[in-house]
Amino acid sequence: MNEPAAYRPPRPIVRFVLHRLSYLAFTVLTDFRVIGAENIPAQGALLVVGNHFHFADPVAVIWAIPG
Predict the structure, then answer these.
(1) pTM of the prediction?
(2) Crossing angle of helices 11-29 and 57-64, rounded to 10°
(3) Domain ranges of the chain
(4) Which of 22, 24, 26, 37 could join 32 via S-S bond, C-beta 3.0 to 4.6 A?
């Protein structure tokens, strides 16, 4: 049988929501600073790699990279 596909919200909406929630969390709970943000290209490809030393690393990457 064919089961109906699960609804997935579009990625830009998910990214926007996660970016706002991570901004709130990092603003309230930490003294998080991004150094070197001027080196992030305004256009084109960007490869971001995290070491995942902590469960919050992916959230920090979402917050640090402009959407």
Answers:
(1) 0.51
(2) 100
(3) 11-64
(4) 26
